[in-house]
């Protein structure tokens, strides 16, 4: 409704279980499969979700950190991730 663009980097092993129309999606190489975290960046906020026996999440509000995470995401998107 708000036409918000989203760009998702997923682990390769969940390729077959991705829900269509989640925004733009690419898949990381298998070397990234052991990472139990999900990171969301919006505005000046970075949210890290840690998956283990219990779900744990924390939010950091920092323009510098958000910009750094965005640069990291862009690098992965452009250089390592595949459709």
Helix content: 10-25%
Give a short account of the largest sheet. Answer: 3 strands, antiparallel
What is the approximate shape?
A: globular
Q: What proportion strand?
A: 35-45%
Task: Please report the total strand number as a whole number.
Answer: 5
SSE arrangement, N to C: EEEEEH
What's the assembly state of these chains? Answer: single chain
Which structural class do the helices and strands define?
alpha+beta
Rg, please? 13 Å
The average pLDDT score comes to 87
Low-confidence runs of at least 5 consecutive residues: none
Major β-sheet strand ordering: 3-4-5
Total number of helices: 1
The end-to-end span amounts to 25 Å
Q: How would you characterize the overall build of this protein?
A:
This protein has 83 residues and is of the alpha+beta class. A three-stranded antiparallel sheet has the order 3-4-5. Strand 3 and strand 4 form a beta hairpin. The longest helix has 17 residues. The radius of gyration is 13 Å and the shape is globular. The model has no long low-confidence stretch (mean pLDDT 87).
Keywords:
single chain, 5 strands, two-stranded parallel sheet, 83 residues, three-stranded antiparallel sheet, alpha+beta
Concise summary:
With 83 residues, the protein is an alpha+beta fold.
Topology:
Elements: E1 7-11, E2 24-28, E3 37-42, E4 45-51, E5 55-61, H1 63-79
Parallel strand pairs: 1-2
Antiparallel strand pairs: 3-4, 4-5
């Amino acid at each position: 409704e708000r036409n918000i663009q989203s760009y998702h980097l997923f682990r390769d092993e969940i390729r077959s279980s991705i829900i269509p129309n989640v925004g733009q999606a690419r898949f990381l190489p298998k070397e990234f499969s052991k990472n139990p975290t999900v990171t969301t960046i919006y505005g000046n906020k970075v949210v890290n979700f840690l998956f283990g026996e219990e779900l744990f999440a924390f939010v950091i509000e920092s323009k510098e950190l958000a910009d750094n995470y965005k640069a990291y995401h862009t690098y992965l998107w452009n250089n390592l991730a595949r459709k």
